[in-house]
Write a sequence for this structure.
């Protein structure tokens, strides 16, 4: 059976990329969550990443059926694609002498891209992280008492929120880099804080909703305050707040961290898919 015809269109303008993927975001909001929120951020602030690129995959009728994004220094992100489409894009980029630090996103296509990239370049590859995608089909609850209470962050909290967000990103990425401020999220009531004994002890934020879906992220509790349920409290409360606003919630979590997986499952999140991050190394 012949393979379906697919065409890749390179896009370098964030507003244009947003238009290309609008229908796909509406059809597949969870899969496109990262692409949609990052692209929206770049529309607002074009200096967030240098040289961002998107590839829209279209079928024979011109309908957009796949989405890829690269925002250096991050790996190429595969939001939605078939394994064949991922292999074809890898072959195209190798032919163009492109350089990538790795690939991530949807597991099957990311693995297919990496296999093709390694075969054609002689580079090495290793799995850097395996991530579960979770959605929230029910109202969240915390099955134990947590001391303190939830509130939305205000402008006065922005410095603290940005400091904790910086620490969160450095812990996830393993490298130091300056991350954008969450001031827009604070202003739009999308950053939650858990307070205990009169001070903030944990945070989380919700991405701008795209296709009716928001992604809960940036969950951070200072190391000396962990083990008290604060993260559970803030995630559950922020998720409930976004549900009340008419949005659906999702999140990603490192599958190598059984604690966070158990926390989210206990409050009502369910695992609905997997993603993977694969790093490329020098040629052997």
């Amino acid at each position: 059976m012949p393979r379906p015809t697919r065409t890749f269109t390179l896009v370098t303008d964030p507003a244009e990329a947003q238009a290309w993927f609008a229908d796909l975001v509406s059809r597949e909001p969870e899969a496109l969550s990262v692409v949609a929120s990052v692209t929206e951020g770049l529309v607002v602030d074009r200096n967030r990443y240098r040289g961002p690129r998107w590839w829209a995959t279209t079928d024979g009728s011109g309908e957009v059926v796949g989405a890829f994004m690269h925002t250096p220094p991050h790996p190429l992100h595969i939001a939605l694609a078939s394994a064949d489409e991922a292999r074809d894009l890898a072959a195209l980029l190798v032919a163009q002498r492109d350089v990538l630090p790795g690939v991530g996103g949807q597991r099957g296509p990311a693995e297919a891209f990496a296999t093709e990239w390694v075969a054609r370049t002689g580079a090495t590859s290793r799995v850097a992280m395996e991530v579960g995608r979770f959605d929230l089909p029910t109202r969240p609850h915390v099955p134990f008492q947590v001391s303190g209470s939830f509130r939305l962050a205000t402008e006065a909290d922005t410095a603290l929120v940005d400091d904790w967000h910086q620490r969160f990103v450095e812990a996830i990425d393993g490298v130091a880099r300056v991350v954008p401020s969450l001031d827009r999220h604070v202003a739009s009531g999308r950053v939650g804080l858990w307070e205990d004994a009169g001070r903030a002890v944990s945070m989380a934020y919700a991405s701008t909703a795209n296709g009716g879906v928001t992604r809960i992220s940036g969950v951070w509790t200072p190391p000396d305050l962990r083990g008290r349920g604060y993260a559970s409290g803030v995630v559950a409360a922020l998720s409930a707040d976004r549900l009340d606003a008419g949005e659906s919630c999702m999140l990603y979590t490192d599958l190598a961290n059984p604690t966070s997986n158990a926390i989210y499952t206990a409050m009502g999140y369910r695992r609905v898919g997997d993603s993977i991050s694969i790093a490329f190394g020098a040629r052997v």
